[in-house]
Amino acid sequence: MEGKVGMTTTIDVHWHHVPRAFAELVISGEVPIAGQVVTKDDGSALVKLDNGFKQPLPPFLTDPDTIIADLDAAGVDVACASIAPPLSHLDCDPQIALGVSRAINDAYAEVAERYEGRIIPLANLPLQDVGLALQELKRVVNDYGFKGVQVGSNIGGKNLGDESLFPFWEQVREQDLFVLSHGLSPLGPERMSEHELKNFVGLPIDTAVAVGSMVFGGIYERLPGLKICYSHGGGAFPCLVGRWDHGYRDRLSKQADTTIRLPSEYLKDIYADSLNHDPAGLRYLVERLGEDQVLLGSDHPFDMGEADPIGKVRAAIGDPAVVDKIVGGTATRLLNL
Hints:
- This protein is an alpha/beta fold and 337 residues long.
- It has a single domain (11-334), classed as Alpha-Beta Barrel (TIM Barrel).
- It has 13 helices and 13 strands.
- It has helices spanning 20-28, 59-62, 67-74, 94-114, 130-144, 166-174, 197-216, 219-222, 231-234, 241-250, 279-289, 309-316, 320-334; strands spanning 11-16, 35-39, 45-49, 54-56, 78-82, 119-123, 148-152, 154-155, 158-159, 178-182, 227-230, 270-273, 294-295.
- The strands form 3 sheets. It has an 8-stranded parallel beta sheet. A 3-stranded antiparallel beta sheet has the order 2-3-4, with no helix packed on it. A two-stranded antiparallel sheet has the order 8-9.
């Protein structure tokens, strides 16, 4: 595995872990969830959620003793740790989601304290109720000093650019917080029930919808300086920028109620992680978004992730200065480290 690049602190912004303290509360039933916990034949726990997701809780996902070893093996100095997305509870009763979020965030605060400097938690919030989400955001920032949040590519089927979420984005911008938007619950699942299409195709498409809703919904226009990183290389969005610009020129710009500018003008505020599993695709991502807009992401510890994210970046990108920005330089700036 590749280690530290020059003097740059390497930071993985797309890195998952389920804190053991949270897992134990879920398994014991002390924290109600939107689903149930069953025991598999091997004795491990499986969370079966009401929305159809199934999230196993194997030791490699919950054991705190693996954290440092995994980071060191990948050559990563710091991980922005977030909950496994199926456990984020963004599409259930808001009170259940609040209880789950509080338990996740409390457990993550303990993990961050134990591994001071190596783990930066990204908060989980009950964004299906923006008022509750803002209360929990205030708590984790004030009590724990959290520097960021993980959100889905949609919130219970609601686009990220939906006007009802604007107060959340406004608070994120005001507090200068980092956000990881992770692909989740893609639209059109009835057409993607086979061949893992929901993951292989659905998540990248849903991420493109998320970015598009933020651009065309005027969120980036009204809140310049947002620091949102979209997972999986931004999904399909980077390949759509030209189409968006063309559509703006030939359609939207001619409409009296258009309040945004050319979509590509917002790229300076849009970030994506490096996890697109393709050297040519990564080079295109850097060319399309800019060398300051791509951050290291591995999706640790899942099978759709990358065990050697730094090595893959170095193999794809020839310029050492650009590599330094991707593997940690830009994240250091965005996280105010």
